[in-house]
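step=encode ok
step=design start
structure_in=
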């Protein structure tokens, strides 16, 4: 009975863990890495054909994104997930395949011109269509025997519609162990979905730590915050642009806007328009709204609305944009509106077009409602960039940049500790993953200090014997040097800000005399020669 860590070890994305028990190879999640990769990864130590089944915690691509790749390479076993996860994966995995096929087409045009080798996507839409019939829908709290001596139970994780923590009970050679995989544990008191259900038993726990070293603070009043931002923007005759993750966050925002409209909290702007401009978000919104089989996944407040005939995320003035032509028409209308569009970090998708049309307008507002990773356009804007480049064009940032506080989809440090502390008999060990390098280590120390339970943060490739409770392989802690970025010093941050200020000064001098501009350019070039080392 062994546990091997193969993803999201000292990193936030790419969740993947292998359980060997009763002669079976069971994979828990098989996610795609997103963003920076700090540590060298290890391959899955068995072939896809040798994997007996997959247990999937939820639909997000960093947990599900590589399952079609396994299928493309010989996996034919079942994928156990909640019914809601099964339905959301049917659109998310197809969307992922479309993106990869488009990227391959683009790269291969360049490769043909340069004589480079052909680029192959991880998987295609055809591979996804082979994957979807393998899903086996499960329900919360039910026990499922997936093999002789192995049963599983899905527990509501409160992170996304259908998200689950998975409890695996193994009886092998007279020894019984319960291994609990947290998946992503959700924040509390969020729209639409229930709070995470706390676990009751476990000998070993694999727990995420995305916010394992931070506290969210008191729950903000989302409706009041959002009402103020909408009112101020519309009073200035501007548009409110909301970069939004297509599944989960978009629907939460629609829930809040529906409440604002229902209570007539916006004064003087009638039945204002709201646009959802993302094909994936539109599909997900339809699933959230119209699939009666998923109603049991909602919280009591949402179920009460449905009982009273109120659609929780639909309202008068809501418009769903699918085609490119529909998307282009949104900004041709001069009337103030709200535009929800993907991607949430502004790295791709239609949101970049909406930013191009609205960022330079001082009457508009860009509202961020999720985490913005380092190096993304969203992070640049929230950090105060005054100029950005979109589609080869320099755009001045004159719109207001706002953030909706406290709407994270992940539990914070205190919530995670409370979740663990609910387990009746203290686990033999806690394994901490799905957090950045320092966060994993810090949260493992917090578990040991606060709960008096042995805890550690395994590296990729680490192998643990669950009978002897010993580490058999420590895993690969080798850092990918070329991709690791040291935290910048305060002095360097000052230098970056000075550079931004210099850029602003340059733009402000547009239209100056040729003599003055030439002298200014000479001064900058001389300074660059001095420090270009």
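sequence_out=
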């Amino acid at each position: 009975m062994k546990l091997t860590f193969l993803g999201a070890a000292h990193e936030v994305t790419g969740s993947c863990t292998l359980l060997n028990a009763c002669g079976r190879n069971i994979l828990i999640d098989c996610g795609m890495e997103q963003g920076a990769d700090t540590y060298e990864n290890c391959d899955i130590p068995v072939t896809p054909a040798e994997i007996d089944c997959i247990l999937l915690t939820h639909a997000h691509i960093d947990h599900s994104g590589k399952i079609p790749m396994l299928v493309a390479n010989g996996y034919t076993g079942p994928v156990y997930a909640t019914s809601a996860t099964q339905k959301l994966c049917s659109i998310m995995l197809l969307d992922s395949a479309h993106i990869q096929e488009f990227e391959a087409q683009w790269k291969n045009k360049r490769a043909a011109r340069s004589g480079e080798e052909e680029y192959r996507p991880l998987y295609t839409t055809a591979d996804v269509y082979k994957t979807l019939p393998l899903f086996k829908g499960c329900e919360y709290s039910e026990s499922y025997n997936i093999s002789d001596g192995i049963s599983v139970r899905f527990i509501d994780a409160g992170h996304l519609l259908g998200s689950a923590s998975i409890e695996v009970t193994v009886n092998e050679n007279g020894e019984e162990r319960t291994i609990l995989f947290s998946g992503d544990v959700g924040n509390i008191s969020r729209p639409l979905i229930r709070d995470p259900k706390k676990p009751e038993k476990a000998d070993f726990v694999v727990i995420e730590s995305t916010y394992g070293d931070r506290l969210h603070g008191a729950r903000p009043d989302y409706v009041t915050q959002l009402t103020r931002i909408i009112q101020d923007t519309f009073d200035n005759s501007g548009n409110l642009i909301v970069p939004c993750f297509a599944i989960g966050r978009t629907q939460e925002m629609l829930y809040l806007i529906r409440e604002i409209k229902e209570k007539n909290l916006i004064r003087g702007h009638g039945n204002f328009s709201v646009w959802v401009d993302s094909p994936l978000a539109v599909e997900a919104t339809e699933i959230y709204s119209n699939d009666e089989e998923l109603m049991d996944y909602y919280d009591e407040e949402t179920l009460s609305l449905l009982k009273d005939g109120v659609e929780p995320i639909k309202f008068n003035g809501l418009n769903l944009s699918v085609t490119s032509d529909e998307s282009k028409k949104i900004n041709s209308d001069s009337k103030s509106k709200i535009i929800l569009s993907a991607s949430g970090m502004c790295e791709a998708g239609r949101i970049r077009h909406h930013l191009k049309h609205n960022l330079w307008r001082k009457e508009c507002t860009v509202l961020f409602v999720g985490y913005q990773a380092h190096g993304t356009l969203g992070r640049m804007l929230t950090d105060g960039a005054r100029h950005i480049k979109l589609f080869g064009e320099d755009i001045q940032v004159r719109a207001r940049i706002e953030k909706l506080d406290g709407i994270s989809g992940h539990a914070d440090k205190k919530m995670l500790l409370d979740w663990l502390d609910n387990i009746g008999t203290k686990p033999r060990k806690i394994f901490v993953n799905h957090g950045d390098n320092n966060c994993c280590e810090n949260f493992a120390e917090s578990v040991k200090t606060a709960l008096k339970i042995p805890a550690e943060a395994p590296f990729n490739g680490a192998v643990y014997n669950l009978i002897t409770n010993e580490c058999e392989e420590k895993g690969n802690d080798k850092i990918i040097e070329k991709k690791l970025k040291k935290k910048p010093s305060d002095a360097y941050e000052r230098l970056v800000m000075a550079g931004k200020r210099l850029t602003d000064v340059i733009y402000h001098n547009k239209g100056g005399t040729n003599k003055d501009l030439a002298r200014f350019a000479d001064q900058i070039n001389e300074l660059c020669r001095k420090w270009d080392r």
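step=design ok
step=annotate ok -> The radius of gyration is 25 Å.
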